[in-house]
Amino acid sequence: MSGEAAVLGDSVAAELRTSIVDQTDAPGSTITEAAVAVRFGVARPTARMAIDRLVAEGLLRREPHHAAKVPVLSREDITDLYDSRATVEGAAVGSLARSGTIPAEALAAHRAIQAMHAGDTFAHEDIAFHRALVNGQPSGRLARMHGLLMGEIELCIGQVQSYSLLDPQEIAAQHQAILTAVIAGDAAQSEQLTRAHISYSRDRLLAHYDSTHPSPR
């Protein structure tokens, strides 16, 4: 595939990623090569490349000989993903605190969330904030581990916010506490606050899941 086609494939993947995080393509939606090709005005090989990228990232799942689908996450998926995320991000932010510096991208995302009001969606800013913190610390291995989780993390963040489970000002306050600990160089506090912040979102999503998936009596 030519460089131009690869760039186009990346662009389609980015737009499709946004529509999945925003729930335009809701959990359970089927994403076919033909539909993506028509939707974005690209050739089938380019559509296939974009879908393959999102399958690799975890934003789509595909069984052999079947079209890709937006995952419907189970309670176990949510718990495992958030607990894994808390472990990796907690360690990463703790590592970042040893430098006492905040990546510019994280600060920009934080300020954008601070300017929002109840009811505003901030999934993309939230994702940018967390990704920037992890990528700003010195361990390439931690960043790669986080990258492996990032697709499903984006899926979860999109679901949490599509259900209006989080208030941007409340999340901004939690982010500010993390940033304050990082600037102070307090690695233990930075890690603890990051874990608590992620657990808070996990618990809100699980509570919503339980309310919409009642256990059989």
UniProtKB/TrEMBL annotation:
Native species of this protein?
Naasia lichenicola
Domain of life of the source: Bacteria
Q: Which Pfam families match?
A: FCD (PF07729), GntR (PF00392)
Family annotation (PROSITE patterns): HTH_GNTR
A molecular function annotated in GO for this UniProt entry is: DNA binding
Cited InterPro entries: GntR_C, TF_FadR/GntR_C, Tscrpt_reg_HTH_GntR, WH-like_DNA-bd_sf, WH_DNA-bd_sf
**What protein am I looking at?**
GntR family transcriptional regulator
Task: Specify whether Transferase is a keyword of the entry.
Answer: no
Q: Which residues form the HTH gntR-type domain?
A: 6-73
Q: Does the keyword DNA-binding apply?
A: yes
Q: Which UniProt keywords apply?
A: DNA-binding, Transcription, Transcription regulation
